[in-house]
Each structure stands twice: as structure tokens, then as C-alpha cells.
Design a protein that fits this description.
It is a single chain. By secondary structure, the protein is of the alpha+beta class. The protein has four helices and three strands; from the N terminus they run αβααββα. Helix 2 (35-42) packs across helix 3. It is globular.
Amino acid sequence: MTTTTPDTTPAMRDLTRQNPKHAEAAPEDTLLLTLDEAARELRCARRTLERYVADQQLTVVHLGRSVRVERRELERFIGRHREPTARG
């Protein structure tokens, strides 16, 4: 008979994915980022992201009262703001 520790149960794995207080997930593994996490990724202020959201330059996901940014939306946002490279 095998014993399962509480840390390895499917419910705990789901909980750790949802709440970083339970376990630190690698940033690249996270599908949804908080505004604070997204701001850290971009190395800007949270307020800057809030302005982009208000200007509809950055699309967010509302989960109840929580606001999240999809990782791929953040990558698209970066791509739209990337300066064209000089050809020569």
C-alpha cells in the first residue's frame, strides 16, 4: 500500500498552482499572472500596467474581483511595442 503525502495529492498540486503562497511555481509555468507579477516581468510599476489596461492596450482576465494577465497576452503586448530592427 502506498501512502500519499499531502504535498503530492492532486488537490494540493491544484492549490499550489492557484496560490503561490503554497509553493512557488516557475514564472514560465504560470498561465495567469497578477498585475504585480506582470509588472515584475516587464520591470515597470503596477500603475503603468493599470494605465495600459484602462487604455485598452493590455487585455486582462477578471476572476471575481481578481485581475489577471495571460502570459501570452503579455508576450503579444511586448511584440506590439517592440521597435522595428534597422536593416542595413
